[in-house]
Amino acid sequence: MSLNNVKPTSFLNTIRFRLTVGYICVLLITIIAISFYFYHSLKFALLHDVTLFMENEFAHSAAYIAKNLDQRNLIIHELNDRVERSAGQFELYYALFDLNGNILAKSHNFAEDLAVVDRLKNVRDDSEESTLEAPKTLVEGTALPTPQTLATYVKSYKDTEVRLLTRPIFREGKMIYFLQLGVNITGVENVLSKYRITLVLAIPVVLMLAGLGGYLLAWHYLKPITHITKAAQKITVSNAFEAPLPLTGSGDELDHLAETFNDVFKKLSESYRKIVQFSADASHELRIPITTLKGEAEVILDRERDLEEYRRVLESSIEEYDRLSKMLNDLLILSRSDLGQGEIEFENVDLSQLIAQMADFLQPVARAKELILQCVPEENIMVQGNKIMLERLFINILDNAIKYTPARKHIAITLQSANDVVRVSIKDQGIGIPADKVSQVFDRFYRIDTSRSREQGGSGLGLSIAKMIADAHKGTIDIRSEEGKGTEVIITLPVK
Predict the structure, then answer these.
(1) What is the Cα–Cα distance from 461 to 481, expressed in whole angstroms?
(2) Which pLDDT score, from 0 to 100, does residue 134 have?
(3) Which residue among 116, 189, 362, 430 has its CA within the 20 to 30 Å range from the CA of 179?
(4) Which residue would you say has higher pLDDT here, 240 or 232?
(5) Helix (H) or strand (E) holding 451
(6) Which fold has domain 345-494?
(7) pTM given for the model
(8) In a 10 Å sphere around its CB, with 0-12 CB exposed, 13-18 middle and 19+ buried, how is residue 37 labelled?
C-alpha cells in the first residue's frame, strides 16, 4: 500500500495561500490603524497651527480696534492691511459688528453672506452669563473673552472652507462690539485630501507587493513540505525505511518533523518485518505438528492394527497436542502483551526465596541430565513484581540452560542487590551461542539449531516471553555467550 492515491490539495486550501491571506489581513489592519492615527495627527497639527494664528491675529486686531474705536476709516485700513500682510500664509476675513449685528467695519474681501450673525447672540449670551473675569491681556480697556466664547465655526463659502472666530470686545468691563475673524482653511483641507488620496492609492499597491512577497516567503520556507510529501508518496509498507524523508539540514521544525516521521517509519518497517517473519514462522511451526498428526493418522488407518499400535499413535498425538497447546498459549500471552491488554498486579516478592524454589523445582530435571545446578542467592532480597510472571521468566531461562548444557556440566545461579537494582545471573557451560546470533535469540520462533530445538520440545517463544516479562517489570535481559563454552543470562530488575 502506498500514498500515491492521496487527492491533491486545492490552491485555496494550501498553507501558503492561507498564510499569505492572514499576513495581508494583519498588514491591512495595521496600515489602516497607523494611517488613521497619522491622518488625525496631521489634521490636528494643521488645525492647531490655524488656531494659534487666529488667536494671535485676533489679539492684535482687537487691541488696535480698542485704541481706535471712534476712527472707523482707520480701523478699516488696519483690517485690510492685516489681510494683505497675511496673504502669504493664510487668507483672512475681518468684520466688526455692533451688539445688534450691524457691520461697522470690514476688510475688503469680507462679503455680507460670509458673516454668521447668529453666532453673535451665542457669543453675547456666553459672555453675559459668564462669572469669570476677563483677563486683561491686551491694551487697557480690552480683554479676551471667557473660555465659553472660544469655539470656532467652519463655513463653506465660494468653494472654500472658512474657519470663523467670533469674540466680543470689552471696554471698561462692558461689551461694546463683536469682532469676527475668518481664515480660509482650504489649503489645510487640500493637504488632508491629498493625504487621503495617497493612502487610498498606496495601500492596495503595498498590499499587493506585501502579498506577493509573503507568498514567495511562504513558498520558500514551506518548500521542504513539498519534498517531504513527494517522498512520503513513494513510501510503501515494505520499504518504509528504505526511502526516508529528506532533511534540509537547517535544524528547523520541518527537519524535526521529518526526523520524527523517519523514526516512526523505521519502527513501522521493523514491525512489519517482524509481523511477516512471525506469520511465516507461525505457519511453519503449526504446519509441522499438523502434518505429523495427519501422517500418523493416515498410516494407522491404512490397515488394521493391534491395540498397542493405536495406543502408541494416540500417545504421540497427545504429545503433539500438548506442544501445540503450549505454543498457542505462549502466542496468546505475547499477543496480549503487544496489545497492552490486562493489568499486571504488583506485590512485594521475596526474589531470594522465589529463585531458590525454582532451582529446587528443576533439580530433578537437571539430575536426570547429570547436571549440577547450584543456587547461591543473597538472603531477603525483595522486589515489586508479579510473582507468577517472575516464576515463568526464570523457569524459561533455566529450562533453556538445562536443555543446551551437556551432561556433567555446571549451571550456576547468583543473586545480588545494589543501588536499588537486583541482578540475577544464570550461567551455564552449554553449547553457547554464535556471536552473530545473540541479538536474534529474543525473536519469536527463532532457533539456532532448528532440528535440535524441535526434538527437545522448544517452540522458540521462551526467551521472547522472558523478555516481555522483564520489560513489564521495567527490567532488562542481557546475554553473554561464547560458542562452545557457555552462556550467561543476566536479568536486572528494579527493587521498586
Answers:
(1) 19
(2) 35
(3) 189
(4) 232
(5) helix 450-455
(6) Heat Shock Protein 90 (3.30.565)
(7) 0.50
(8) exposed
User: Quick one: DSSP state of residue 4?
Assistant: T
Residue among 406, 397, 424 nearest 490 (CA): 424
Separation of alpha carbons 385 and 474, rounded Å: 10
Range in 28-32, 217-221, 232-236 with the lowest mean pLDDT? 232-236
Q: Cβ distance 162 to 181 under 8 Å?
A: no
pLDDT band at 145 (very low <50, low <70, confident <90, very high): very low
Q: How confident is the model at residue 118 (pLDDT cuts 50, 70, 90)?
A: low
Helix H or strand E encompassing 424:
strand 421-428
Written as nine digits, the cell of 192 is 488632508
CA 95/CA 166 separation, integer angstroms? 9
CB-based burial of residue 250 (10 Å sphere; 0-12 exposed, 13-18 middle, 19+ buried)? exposed
Q: Which residues contact 237 (CB under 8 A, 6 or more apart)?
A: 1, 268, 269, 272
Which pLDDT belongs to residue 135? 35
- For 26-192, CATH number out of 3.60.20.20, 3.90.420.10, 3.30.40.10, 3.30.450.20 equals 3.30.450.20
**Among 84-98, 130-144, 264-278, 311-325, whose mean pLDDT is lowest?**
130-144
Please state, rounded to an integer, the average pLDDT across all residues of the chain: 77
Q: Give the start-to-end residue ranges of the domains of the chain.
A: 26-192, 253-337, 345-494
Rounded to whole angstroms, the Cα distance separating 205 from 212 reads 11
C-alpha cell at 314: 494416540
Beta strand 92-97 with 421-428 is unpaired
CA distance 241 to 83: 90
Q: Is the dihedral of CA 448, 450, 455, 458 positive or negative?
A: positive
CATH hierarchy code of domain 253-337: 1.10.287.130
